[in-house]
Amino acid sequence: MAPTSCFNGQVHRLPDAPEAYGAMITRAKAAQGQSRSADLSMADFRRTGCDATAMANIGSIVMNVSDIRRASEFWSRALGYVPRNGHDAVLMPSSGDGPLLWLDEEDRTHIELWAVDAEEQRAEVERLVSLGAKRVDWSYPDGANFVVLADTEGNLFCVINAEGS
To answer: Is 32 exposed, middle or buried (0-12, 13-18, 19+ CB in 10 A)?
Structure first.
């Protein structure tokens, strides 16, 4: 089977012949409305998107705490995070680049994988289930933008449709 790569969320089967990568990059860039003359190396092509083995990113970590203010102060100082929009319960990297840390007095500690849209979310849920994740019987609110799964050790995590956030 040929290796796969992903360009802006679309999985592509990589041709066996390295010289075919240039044409593939040109087609992918043209589909994105980018100039056909823009040059990407093979390494750039592999870095621009994702690998077929991973579509979603860790968007946030939800941490169960008993005192949001105290935990916010600690984690802000420990990680160099700052409150998002002035809310102590949601911390973000001061650079703006990286997963959020949500502090919650009721929810369990878990990670949230963020998919770009509903289609990617569905594909990611199916991919994770094929890897051994289990669907969890969960009471979802109307319009829920998340799917709860359990990993192979029984740890719960969510796959979020970030577009629906």
So the answer is: exposed
> Is this structure's pTM higher than 0.90?
no
pLDDT tier, 55 (very low <50, low <70, confident <90, very high otherwise) = confident
In sequence order, the 6+-apart residues with CB closer than 8 A to the CB of 105 are: 64, 65, 66, 67, 68
User: Do residues 59 and 100 touch, judged by C-beta distance below 8 A?
Assistant: yes
Q: In the block, which residue shows the tokens 């594909």?
A: 123
| Average pLDDT of span 51-79 | 89
One-letter-per-residue 3-state SS of the chain: CCCEEEECCEEEECCCCCCHHHHHHHHHHHHCCCCCCCCCCHHHHHHHCCCCCCCCEEEEEEEECCCHHHHHHHHHHHHCEEEECCEEEEEEECCCCCCEEEEECCCCCEEEEEECCHHHHHHHHHHHHHCCCEECCCCCCCCCCEEEEECCCCCEEEEEEHHHC
Q: What percent of the chain has pLDDT over 90?
A: 61
